[in-house]
Amino acid sequence: MPSEVAPMRNKVSNSDLTARRGGGDSFFGFVQKQLRDKCSGRLVALMLRELGRHEPEAFLVLLQEVQFSADQRKAIRGGAAQIETEWAYMPGRRADLAVIVDGQEILLLEVKEDDLMSSGNSDQLADYIAHVADRSAEIHFVHFSRYSPLRSLGPLQSMPNVHDLRYRHLIEAVRNHENETSGRAPLSRMIREYLEDIGVDSYKQISLDQELDALTLLVTQMSGFDHFHGLGRLHTASNATLAPDLLRRLLSNAVVLGEWLLEPNASIIKQKPKSKFHVTNRYSATLLKRAISTPDPDDGLVDLPRKAVQEGILSVHASAALDKSGSQSWVYVTVGQYVTVSAATREKARFSLFVELVWKGGDGVHLESEDWFDMFPSESTATKELRTLLQRALKKARKLDGSPAVFDKVSLPAPRT
User: Fold this and answer.
1) Are 89 and 98 in contact (CB under 8 A)?
2) C-alpha to C-alpha distance for 76 and 59, rounded to whole angstroms
3) How far apart are CA 15 and CA 13, in angstroms?
4) SS3 labels along 261-272
5) What are phi and psi for residue 389, nearest 5 degrees?
6) Cβ atoms within 10 Å, residue 318
7) 3-state class of 315 per DSSP?
8) Are the C-beta atoms of 406 and 390 separated by less than 8 Å?
9) What is the pLDDT of residues 103-158, one digit of tens each?
C-alpha cells in the first residue's frame, strides 16, 4: 500500500551527512584548508556558516528575502538546522553553503568574488537552477557575490526561489546586529571588520551631530580655504583624524550608487562604474583680478590668495561608460554626491546629488538636486532622488541633436529601501 505522505526530495540521512561535507568541521581546520586552496570566496562561506550557527539572527537578516517557513526559521534560530560548507548537492557539484532542516535541503548558496566572470559560471548556474526549478516550496538558491555581475543572470531575475545578494548586504546585516546587541556580537564584529579590511563597499550615512565639522574641515582643506574665514576652529585633532575616513565613506557610497546604476543596465555597461572624486573652487573675482595683475617678477607665476576661495565643492561620484564607447565615440553616465562649503556665509557642509550625461561631440546634460538636503541622504533617499534626476536627464538628452541612441536603452534603477 503506498504511503499517504509524499517522500521529501533530497532527504539526507545522518550517515550521508558526513560524506557530503566537503571541508573540515572546525573553523581553523577549514581556514587552513582554504589558505592552501587560495579561494577567498570559500572563506566567506565559512564565515556565513559560523554566523548561521552562532548568531542566527544576523544570518536571517541577511536572508530576509528568502521565504523560509516559520518552522524552518525556528530551526535556524534554535540551532536545529545543519549549516554546512562544500555541500555535494548533485554528482560533481558542490554548493559553497547549504542549510538542511530535518534532513531536507532548504537553501543552497554560491559565493562569487574574484571568479565572478569565470567562463564556467553559466553551466554552474544552470545546474543550480535545474536543481531548484521544480522545488519552489522546498529549496532556495542564493547567488552571493561581492560585485554586481556585468552580464545578466537571467533566471535569477524571475524565479521566486532564486535570489541575488551582495557582500554589502552581509556587512549591513552584521552591522545592524552589532548595534541591536549593543556590541555583544563578536562574530558579527569580526565579519564586519574583515569585510571592511578587504574594502567591501556599503552605503554609509554621515552623522550631522558628530561628524559634520570633520566633513567641513575636509572640504575646506582640499579647497585651500583661508583660516580667517572663521573656519579655523574646525582644526581639532579628532576632526583631522576623522576627515580621511569620511572621504573613504563617500567613495564607498559612490561605488554603491554605481552598482545601483549597473544592475538593470548590465547589457549596455560593459565595465564596472569607476568611483572618483574632485574638488571645484569658486573664487572672488575682485581678489583674483588683483592677484593676476601682479605676477611674481622672477617666474611669472601667480599665488592666488586663500581669501579668494569663496566656495568649495567636493564631488564624489561613479561614472559608467555605455556600450560602443571608445576613443572615437564615447558616452558616460555619472551619478554622484556634492558636499559644498561656503566661506561667504560661513556655513558648514551641505549636501546635494547630481546626474550627468556626456557624449563625444555633445554639450551634455547636468542636473542636480533643486534643494539642499536637511540631513545627509540615506541610501533610500539618494537612490530615489537620483532616479528622478536620471529620468529627467535622459528625457532632456534625447531631445538634443546628436544624442546617442544608446540612451533609449538605459533602464531606470528602482530606489533601494
Assistant:
1) yes
2) 9
3) 5
4) HHHHHCCCECCC
5) -65, -40
6) 25
7) strand
8) no
9) 999 999 999 886 555 666 778 888 898 888 866 668 999 999 988 776 666 666 67
